[in-house]
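Hi R.,

Here's the chain you asked about this morning:
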Amino acid sequence: MGGISFGEILLVAVLSLVFLDPKDAGRLWGRFLRWKRQFADLTDSVKSELAAVAAPVAEGASVLEGGDWWNETDPARLRQWARERLAIVDTEKSAATPGQILSRLSEWPVWQEARDVALFASTPEEIPTFPLLEAALAAGKRVWMPWIGTEPGQMEFAPVQGPADLVPGRFGILAPRLELQVPHEIPADLLVLVPGLVFDHHGHRIGRGKGYYDRWLARHPSAVRVGLCYDVQVHPGRLVPAAHDMPMHHLLTEYRQESFASQS
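And here is the predicted structure, written out as tokens:
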């Protein structure tokens, strides 16, 4: 915060001598100082927010041609960017989002025509997926849920009949009951809703870094891949995928549905 200027001191002094008694002048001076501190704190906060928004460019990200904002290459920074944005998603919005997603799904031919859909058991920072599970079952679809095995990077899917078929699994995330964790023949046209921390408008995705979904999707290339996230997790630039990253065919948020027809 900057110091008090001579002009400010002179102004208050003149007012005190001409219009106010010393006690009133002292109270006015104290209020003025408190207001000045509050204004300086607010200014610093705004400057910090603007610096955070500009950080990806200022820290060496390369600007792209063709309308993209920037080409972000640091997964750790991207994950932190997403978590900071997820922190603004309040409980009320989180509770309303599944209804918005279901409204979009009900009008989307890809969902309407799917006989088999794969969901994930959401964590607190993800869109609640149990309403989607119930809606899919009510629509007569077969629902698949993932489970993580003991082998490094192993993830498989098993069909479930409802929430009663789910129990706490690895990392405390709900997964199919142990007796359901057996090999299953996966439908070739399985519609897979894929979680992630960051997505972009080009079909790219940044997950949590363990690679479970990328490995599974690479083994099942005919599956229809749909990124599911809050709109605040959609990066305005173009993510730079690693060689093993599997691109999405579609992106679904509470406010948009995008398709990327060029993805294999």
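One quick note: The chain has two domains: 6-58, 71-259.

Cheers,
M.
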